[in-house]
Design a protein that fits this description.
single chain, 492 residues, alpha+beta, Phosphorylase Kinase, domain 1, Transferase(Phosphotransferase), domain 1, three-stranded antiparallel sheet
Length: 492
Amino acid sequence: MSQRYRPLYKLDAGGMAEVYVAEAVSMAGFSKKVAIKRILPGLIKDQRFVRMFLDEARISLRLNHANIVSVFDIGESESTYFIVMEFVEGTNLKTMLEHAAKRQQTLPIQLTCWIVNEILKGLEYAHRLTDNETGAPMGIVHRDISPPNILVSWNGEVKLTDFGLAKATTQLESTDPGVVKGKYSYLSPEAAHAQAVDHRSDVFAVGILAFEMLTGRRLFKGKNDFQTIAMVRQAEVPSIRSFNKDIPKELEKIIMKALTKDVSQRYQSADEFSHDLLSFLFSKRMMVGARDVIEWVKPIREERDKEIAAQRQQAEKEVSPGGTNLFLDLIQEEMMHFRSIGEGEGPAGAKPVVAAGSMIPPAQMGAPDPSKPIDIGAFSPGSGTLGLSPTPTPVPGPGNIPSMADALGLDLPVVGRPKEQGKEGGSPVRPRAGNGAGGPRAAGAESKPKLPPSLAPPMPTVAESSSSPLLYIIVALVGVAGVVIYFVISGG
C-alpha cells in the first residue's frame, strides 16, 4: 500500500469516517490524486456499519458515469477498512447553499436547472443499471440524496457520491422492517414511513434539493428529528413562488410534480424529470453550462484556497523534530498493511487466504453465484508468485517412452499389462500421466494444438503385442508345412 497510495492531508471528517487526499503512484511512475475514505478505528467492531460501508464500495465499483464519483479500490488494514475513490477538486451543494444564504441570495434559475439535471443523469444511469451476467435490472436506489453528497468541481462538473445507504435488489440483505435510513430532511414520504422504496424515492429527494436551491429555505426541518419525519410523512409542500416571485409557473409545476406525495403521480423516472427541466430551459431560451457553474463557485474556491493555506501552516506546526507529520505517518503505517479484498470478505464471513506462490483453489475460480451480492473480487484479479527452481533435464530412456508419447499426443499400448477396453473395440488405452484413476484432465489438456493434415507428420504404426498360445501353434504349423514342402520339391 505504501508504494501505491501516499496520504497528503485530511480532507474531511465525520462521526463515522474520515477522508484523506492521497497520491496514487503507478509502477511506471505516474501519479494522480485520489480520495481515501477510512472507517474510524473505533467503529471497526460495529458489524452493521462496516457492512454498510462495504455495501457502498460493492455498488460504487459497478457504477461508471460522468456524474457519479468513481471508486477504484476497496481494501483493509489490520485495524480498519478503506475505499479509494476519485478525488473531486471543488465543493459541494451544501457549501453552495450556505454561501448563497450568507449573501441572502438563492441559486440562479439556470444554474439550479443545470445542477439538478446533472444529478438526474447520474441517477438515471444508476437506476437502470443491469447485472453484467444475467442482464436483470439491479434495482439500485441511492436513498441518501442530500446537499453534502452532491459534489461540484471547480471545472463545473456535478457528481453524485456516497452510496453508503444504497441498496441493490440483487443483494441478499434488505432494509430492516421499521427502520428509517437516510437524512431525515431529504426522505421521501414512503421512506419516512419505513416502507419499501424504489427509484422514485430518489426523484422526490432531488425535488427537495431543487426547492431549497430556488427558495433558499429548508423544506422539511422540524425542531427535532421526530417532527421532521412527521413533516416528511405529510409531504405538505408550499408554493415555491411564495418565497421567490422570479420562479416561472412552468418551473414550479415541474418541481411540485417531483414532490408529489402519491408515488404514482410523481415522475416515474429521473429521465422524465430531466426531460421536463430541459424542455423548460429551451422554451425560455435560457443558456446555461459548466462555464456558469465555474463563475458562480469562484468565490467559494478563493475561500477554500485560504483554508487550505491555513491547514498547511497548521500541519507544519505539527511536524515532528524528525521532519514528518506524526498523524500522517500513523495513517501511512496503517496503509502499509493495505490489501484489496474480494467477495465474501469482511465482517460478513471468513476471509479466505491464499498464500503467495500457492495455487488458487478451484472453488475460487468458478463462475460467481448470482444469488450472492456483487462480486467485487472480479474487479481486483488476484496475482501470485510461483517459486520455480531449475531442474536437470533427464536423459531419455525406455522408461521415458510413456511420457514422451504423452508429449506427442500418442496413444501407445501397455506391454505386459492387462488391456483396458475402450468404448468400442478392444484397442488398449493407456491412462494419461497426471489424470489419475478416471479423473478429469487438467485444464487445457483436451485442447492440444493440432497441425493441418497437409503439415502433420505421418503417424507411426505400432504393432500390438499378444501372448495368446494360439498364435504360437499357428506359427509352428506354418513352419512345419514349409519344411514338408521343401523336402517334396527337393525329392522331385
